[in-house]
Amino acid sequence: MNFDVRKIAELSYLKIDDERLGDFENDMNSLAEMVGGLPESDDEPLIPDNFMKLRPDVNDCCVISRDELLAGAPETCGGCVCVPNAVPIQERNGDSR
Known about the structure:
Layout: H1 5-11, H2 21-36, H3 66-70, E1 76-77, E2 80-81
Antiparallel strand pairs: 1-2
């Protein structure tokens, strides 16, 4: 798979010097090759001899109810922890909250 790094940089508003384009293309191709080698997701259990095999996400270290976990949160909404916006929300008139 070949990547047009110049086009990707343009679309993402990045400036990449022409002499570095080849390095970025090699890095992108290496990443694509690595991702292509990842296993497909399925429901089979983990096989210890195959580190690329996925395992089920199971909590086996402790049993804490959702209510107990949320009791320590400063604010909750609908059973979830509320956090402040990381990026201000723009209102229609351009003011940010």
